[in-house]
Amino acid sequence: xxxxxxxxxxxxxxxxxxxxxxxxxxxxxxxxxxxxxxxxxxxxxxxxxxxxxxxxxxxxxxxxxxxxxxxxxxxxxxxxxxxxxxxxxxxxxxxxxxxxxxxxxxxxxxxxxxxxxxxxxxxxxxxxxxxxxxxxxxxxxxxxxxxxxxxxxxxxxxxxxxxxxxxxxxxxxxxxxxxxxxxxxxxxxxxxxxxxxxxxxxxxxxxxxxxxxxxxxxxxxxxxxxxxxxxxxxxxxxxxxxxxxxxxxxxxxxxxxxxxxxxxxxxxxxxxxxxxxxxxxxxxxxxxxxxxxxxxxxxxxxxxxxxxxxxxxxxxxxxxxxxxx
Length: 325
What we know:
The protein is 45% helix and 19% strand. The protein is α/β, with parallel strands linked by helices. The chain starts with a helix and ends in a 5-residue tail after the last helix. The chain has eleven helices and nine strands. The longest helix is centred in the first third of the chain and has 24 residues, at 4-27. Helix 1 (4-27) packs parallel to helix 9, helix 2 (44-60) packs across helix 9 (263-277) and helix 4 runs parallel beside helix 11. 38% of the residues are buried.
């Protein structure tokens, strides 16, 4: 029989976590925070992380130290954070590869759905479909028609096997009913070099590195892959406007913590991230690079995005029989 005294002790113990939550949020952070970027320095994810880390440092009152941990197709850095203490002092810059790798690589050292606590998105990152000007097409419908007339003769570059840009090309091929051959490069820059040189016909590139070649006519831009037009390339239609029904594909960069990180800490980080992204200077800089800020940016929004991405890209990987050793 449970006594009245025992019930009172149980109730008091159960109340402690609730009472501790405001104090936990108020005390955090009391030392520097490590932000792991699973890419080499100087790339898009690294640059974006540093753009966001500085103003967040000022808001949190503690340094956010960016630590580059490349390797294993981003699995090394991501795995480190999956195994880190869930105390809010070890965070990860996640990208689409965090989800894609689980269906692409053997022995991935994490489960994206179980081992991370999403905090929020930095930005969505559209691709722009570019072709070499010698390719006799000036629109997406013309490209589709040309590819159908020349099956297997149109090739496309990407910045890596199984990368979001590669999968976007495979998605396009399936939705448009065409055959195009993939050529993988070690990075966006060498891929663009070969498209400009005409050694490869087309590419889905992130906007920032492709913009100079588009402006000087060395590349012809046909469409963007977001669901709405991008201000920095406002004259370009979306793929859907260009006739590829329901086509949408964007990269993303987000902030994640290890699973089990207390909700008050996740909430505090999300709050400061939203304040940071609302700063006019940073907002303008992100827009100028072709990034899109999400309308809703709660932790659960990032969780939902990851689940949608998993369903979409696992299907493409399976159908295209994409493998990476």
